[in-house]
Write a structure and sequence with these properties.
Blueprint: E1 2-8, E2 16-22, E3 29-39, H1 41-47, E4 58-59, E5 64-71, E6 83-86, H2 96-99, H3 107-115, E7 125-126, E8 132-135, E9 145-149, E10 153-155, H4 162-165, H5 168-182, E11 191-194, H6 198-210, E12 215-219, H7 222-230, E13 235-238, H8 244-251, E14 256-261, H9 266-274, E15 276-284, E16 306-309, H10 317-330, E17 339-344, H11 348-357, E18 362-366, H12 369-372
Parallel strand pairs: 4-8, 11-12, 11-14, 12-13, 14-15, 15-16, 17-18
Antiparallel strand pairs: 1-2, 1-4, 2-7, 3-5, 3-9, 3-18, 5-6, 6-10, 7-8
Helix pairs in contact: 5-6, 5-10
Bound molecules: zinc ion (2 copies).
Length: 374
């Protein structure tokens, strides 16, 4: 079928919204009518060619939600009409990592996602002239419809408006998982969040729910710091000065128990490290361009400080998504509040430009106004 989709033909060139061809779902796949999609900073990294070569032409979009339209022969967990959120790691549940309960590191999902193909190694997307198109992280949801691996379509409660549900599958699961699974933050521990954009604000929200105190938000932008304070940060610190780390250390006593870097730059990774108390741990959530290295004062390993990465919440996203949807329904997780723009698909380039300039938090692209419920 023909669908409208946002295509990246070449890096650092404008995204083109155009008609492309979508093949029907195979046995273990699902066709979803996309309601809404969130624009994430990793879309910028991909569009700017910072994640490596060979990743285009591609239909962008890896955070979204919609309604199931058709299912393959072996799909049983969803039916047409179900509301679903996308999961960018459709875990195979059979590989070494999945069997060890590290499903976010699923080996075939980790290999196929960056190659732009589905779990069987092929694409359902092409240009009208037959040129193969890649799927962004097996999701490709900057499009009216998409075909995803069955495990990439996670059923969600209908009560949650789809424009809000669209944010769960990347930003929210990444943020909550970093706090709960990677850092395992306990009530009363101190934490600092460096970078308060769409994902950083959700890290703040997850830390508030975990009972972190003090909870210090750090950013260059006063508007984002205000949003972080609304979300439960106890203090905010401007990151534009050489004294930033010293101020965080003072606010937290001897430095934070936990630091979260949600920017993806070596300077902010170093800043997160400098905010830690002896024995504290930094979790890097931000995605840095390929080739970037980070330097740390090695003597400080002697103070038992640690730094670790986190991918996609370091847990089982398919299990976490419905739980996060429930938190949103009970009001413990504010999805609408991090949305600073709601726009049609055609505005995708503007949304990416705002992220490049560091303006605003999340943009939601609405593919189907009625379904999205905005
Ligand atoms: Zn993302
Ligand atoms: Zn697996």
């Amino acid at each position: 079928m023909r669908i409208r989709a946002a295509v990246l033909h070449e890096p650092r060139q404008p995204i083109v919204v155009e008609e492309v061809e979508l093949a029907p779902p195979r046995d273990d796949e699902v066709l979803v009518r996309v309601a809404a999609a969130g624009v994430c900073h990793s879309d910028v990294r991909l569009a700017d060619g910072e994640l490596g070569d060979g990743r285009w032409p591609i239909v962008l979009g890896h955070e979204g939600a919609g309604v199931v339209e058709a299912i393959g022969a072996s799909v049983t967990h969803v039916a047409p009409g179900d509301h679903v959120g996308f999961c960018i790691v459709p875990a195979c549940r059979a590989c070494e990592e999945c069997l060890a309960e590290r499903v976010h590191l699923c080996i075939p999902a980790g290999e196929n996602g960056p190659r732009g193909v589905l779990m069987d190694g092929t694409s359902r997307l092409s240009l009208p002239d037959g040129t193969m198109l890649q799927h962004a992280l097996m999701t490709a949801c900057f499009a009216e419809r998409t075909v995803v691996p069955a495990a990439g379509a996670v059923p969600l409660p209908r009560e949650l408006p789809l424009w809000q549900a669209s944010l769960l599958g990347c930003g929210v699961v990444t943020a909550f998982g970093a706090v709960r699974n990677a850092a395992n933050v306990q009530a009363g521990e101190s934490a600092v969040v460096v970078g308060c954009g769409g994902v950083g604000l959700q890290v703040v929200a997850a830390l508030r729910l975990a009972g972190a105190d003090p909870l210090v938000a750090v950013d260059l932008d006063s508007e984002k710091l205000a949003l972080a304070l609304e979300r439960g940060a106890t203090h905010s610190v401007d990151s534009g000065s050489a004294a930033t780390a010293a101020r965080v250390v003072k606010l937290t006593g001897r430095g934070a128990d936990h630091a979260f870097e949600v920017v993806g730059r070596p300077e902010t990774m170093r800043l997160a490290w400098d905010c830690l108390r002896p024995g504290g741990t930094a979790v890097v959530v931000g995605l840095a361009p390929k080739g970037v290295e980070v330097a740390l004062p090695a003597i400080e390993f002697l103070s038992d400080k640690g730094i670790r990465g986190s991918y996609y919440g370091s847990g089982d996203a398919a299990a976490d998504l419905p739980r996060l949807a429930e938190l949103a329904l009970t009001g413990d997780l504010d999805l609408a509040g991090v949305v600073t723009a709601v726009e049609p698909l055609e505005a995708v380039n503007d949304a990416l430009d705002r992220l490049r300039r560091g303006e605003g938090a999340r943009t939601v692209l609405v593919l189907d106004e009625q379904l999205a419920g905005h």
